[in-house]
Amino acid sequence: MKRRVVITACSAITPIGWDKNDIIDSLRQGKSGVKPLRDDGLLNKHIHSRVFGTVDYPIDYGFKRQYRKTMGPVAYYACQVAQDVLEQANLSREFITSGRLGVAFGSTHGSPTVQRDIYRTFFQELDAKFSSIGAVDYLRSMVHTTAVNITRMFGITGRVIASSTACTTSSQSIGFGYEMIKFGMQDAMICGGADEYDTTTVAVFDNLLACSSAYNETPWRTPRPFDSKRDGLVVGEGGGAVLLEEYESAKRRGAKILGEIIGFACNNNGGDLILPNLAGITATLRLALQDAEISPGAVDFISAHATGTKMGDVIEAQAIAAVYGENTPFVTGLKSYMGHTMGTCGVIEVILTIYMMEQGFIAPTLNLEQVDERCGMLRHVREVTPAPIKIGAVQNFAFGGVNTCLIVKAGSELDK
Amino acid sequence: MNRDELQEKILTILTVDFEFSQPGLDDNLRDDHGFDSIDAIELLGKIEVILGITLTREEKEKAMEIRTINDVLDYIEAIDSSRHR
Question: What angle do CA A239, A176, A188 make, to 5 degrees?
């Protein structure tokens, strides 16, 4: 049994906004969410990259203490976007608690802020000021904290999939959620990811010489996917969720259908855990098209992973060219607006693709001033382009050699 | 510390830290205020600070019988007097 899977609600907290109109405005106006790195009193002085994709607007969560007590910052993002999609979708309480709604949600490594507080107790004298490790610190910091804080807050009793595969975390969440529904295991899934402000991730990429450091005084000019003057990625924060539903039941209840997931692929490079791998990535893109049962020519738009690293962008361009040939779809690197939001990037890029589908435009890659000739074979979007996206491919690749590709069809194209 | 002072301290903790709304001394902590096992462990930590002691495992296990705020006060007084016997 194969069932169709549609997106009926979405919400993203991003460095370029939370409200849909703010995000669309940033995409149209070319506004960046990359800001100076904050002083964390720990690592920031030792890091060369001094930029971060920052959520710097106030969010009034309004969560009761009963729920807050098991949440670190990452779970606040997760529960807020989950609450947003449940409110948008207006699912009945009976369905939410029926066991037919599941959650696929993850983060790179739970809450590093809470983990840091725990480590403080190891490295400092235990006293009342810092207290000892609290009863709920594990719940607030653990790898699956986002997924289970969502189930707790909304009384969800279905399956829990807590993927934690760095940059493919939330694209896997959507892909695995799609498969849960497609093959009849669940009727709906809240899927997504979140990652909080964290300098340890910046330090890791900084040590690997993969972080941008040439634009510290002008943060909005980096990252620069596919640009000849790119010098690395910019770490960011945020959260995003989509609600996936089985198509027939969504239609029956009169849900607004924003899009359809028509294909998903996930594989591994089977070797190096860091270096981008042309064969692995190319295979992922082909497998996703196969799963969607469409030819490459049917895809209008590619949301490239495009982190702005020197090698990653070139390998991705080669993979796109290998799969799509000379006449590639429009290609945009959406991380140019907000940096690399890590575990969240896949779901944010799916949501931005849906917004652009609805609005009938394609946002350009920000800071793409001179295309690196090794990436020149792609149809780069250089300015806001009025064009309907009927089918988009969202590509993400992670440390660990994990690759994903999601194929999304516009809601307006559903029965065409 | 007499019982009135203790009561004031506990009520402050429950309203400020645990966000109880208008707690009554004989309210059921769980049913009326959503107090759960995580809260119980956190409250024991605060009781340790009030009394300036570290509770033993046996003493903590006894706390699992607590149902009301009056039970909390009785519990603290019992611990305190057993330590000063």
Answer: 80
Question: To which CATH superfamily is domain A5-411 assigned?
Answer: Thiolase/Chalcone synthase (3.40.47.10)
Backbone φ and ψ for A379, nearest 5 degrees, come out as -90, 80
pLDDT tens-place string over residues A356-370: 999 999 999 999 999
Q: For chain B, how many residues are written?
A: 85
Global model pTM greater than 0.90: yes
Contacts of A131 in chain B (CB under 8 A): 45
Instruction: State the pLDDT confidence band at A131, using cuts at 50, 70 and 90.
Output: low
Q: Which two tokens stand for residue B23?
A: 């707690």
Contact: A134, B42; criterion CB under 8 Å:
yes
Q: State the smallest CA–CA distance between residue A191 and chain B in angstroms.
A: 28
Q: Quote the tokens at residue A104.
A: 């696929």
Which amino acid makes up residue A414?
L
Closest-CA residue of A relative to B16 is A65
Q: By the 8 A CB rule, do A23 and A16 touch?
A: yes
Q: How far is B49 from chain A (nearest CA, A)?
A: 8
Domains observed in chain B: 3-83 (1.10.1200.10)
pLDDT digit string (tens) for A226-281?
999 999 999 999 999 999 999 999 999 999 999 999 999 999 999 999 999 999 99
Indicate the domain borders of chain A: 5-411
Interchain pair B38, A69: CB under 8 A: yes
Contact yes or no for B49 and A136 at CB 8 A? no
Identify the contact set of chain A against chain B, taking CB-CB distances under 8 A.
64-66, 69-70, 128, 131, 134-136, 139
The partner residue sitting opposite B38, judged by closest CB among A64, A128, A135, is A135
